[in-house]
Amino acid sequence: MQNPIELYGALAGNCIRAAIALEEAGVPYTVKRIDLAACEQLGSHHRALNAFGKVPVLVEHRREGTFVLTQSNAIMFFAADRSGNGLLPADPVARARIYERFFYFLTDVIAVSHGAFRLEQMGARAQSTHLNGMAMAALAESERFLESTPFMAGDEFSLADISAFTIASAFREDLQWASHPALTRWFEAVSMRPAVINGLKAFA
User: Fold this and answer.
1) CATH at residue 170
2) What is the pLDDT of residues 173-191, one digit of tens each?
3) What is the pLDDT of residues 88-106, one digit of tens each?
4) How many CB atoms lie within 10 A of CB 192?
5) pTM greater than 0.85
6) Which domain holds residue 23?
7) Which residues have C-beta within 8 Å of that of residue 184, sequence separation ≥ 6?
8) Which of 22, 54, 85 is the last residue before a domain boundary?
9) What pLDDT band is residue 1 in, cutting at 50, 70 and 90?
10) Within-domain flag for 118
11) Of 87, 86, 61, which is closest to residue 73 (Cα–Cα)?
12) Is 102 contained in some domain?
């Protein structure tokens, strides 16, 4: 019997990535919604779990005590290690390829997009638009990853696809899909995965 797991979060890309990873790994969890608009993430209860007042947060209730894990990417790797499937395979070469593609989306697309969001909040709209353009260009370049394989890091769905999918969803209205047939095919296929559908609805 698995230890009870709770996932604290909101309807945001980082939280959705964590939820999709848990769903794909077949790890049961209970959603604990945090109202960001009401600043619940800054309250004493949530700060006891994450001193920085951020989401998502995973809480696992073990016999020996409570295990708390923050950072969406750490939660994704936690899920992958328990998946027993291709999210993060044992083969070192396949694993290295997943790392390569996962960190490509994390650093060249997601981190750049987050920077754009912060600039937008500061009123630096021109700079924000420029950074978002860079992020979308990097996302569009991932078409090359799909030239000979159905998924971002090979023949099997992996953590790389989860990181790519959530940021692609965020840019869905702005990306020129007609110019990227492989990316379009991949996005549509991933969208239909039951675990992805469940993960997208986790905080809705």
Assistant:
1) 1.20.1050.10
2) 999 999 999 999 999 999 9
3) 888 999 999 999 999 999 9
4) 8
5) yes
6) 5-85
7) 177, 178
8) 85
9) low
10) yes
11) 87
12) yes
